[in-house]
Write a structure and sequence with these properties.
The chain is mainly α and about 110 residues long. The chain contains 6 helices and no strands.
Amino acid sequence: MHVPEEIRAEAAALIDHHALGLWKPNDADRRAAVALFHFLETGLPLTSEQIRSALAHTEPAADLTGRLLDLLRGTAGLLDDAPVAESPAGRDAVDHVCLLLDALALSRLTGR
C-alpha cells in the first residue's frame, strides 16, 4: 500500500475507528506513534527514515496492530518516491497519517 489514495483512506478509517472506540491501539501502536510524534514536534516533514527508525526501535514491531504497521510501511514507501510524495495527493495522505499519529500519541498522554 503506497498509493496515496489508499494511504489516506486507511489513515482516515483508523482515525474514525479510534475516535469511535472501534479500534483500540495496543501499547506497541502507541509507542510507535509517540516516537513519530516526537519527530513531528521538530516541525520538519516526516520522512521514510523516521518511520523505519521508529518501527525498528518499537519493541517488537511485530506487536503493532497489522493495519497500523501496514499503513506505516506503506507511508514509508510513499515517502521514498519523492515525486509522488510531493504531489497534492501524496501530501494529503501523509497529512492524514500525521493526524492519526497525533491522535494516538495524544491519547496516550491523556490516558485515553
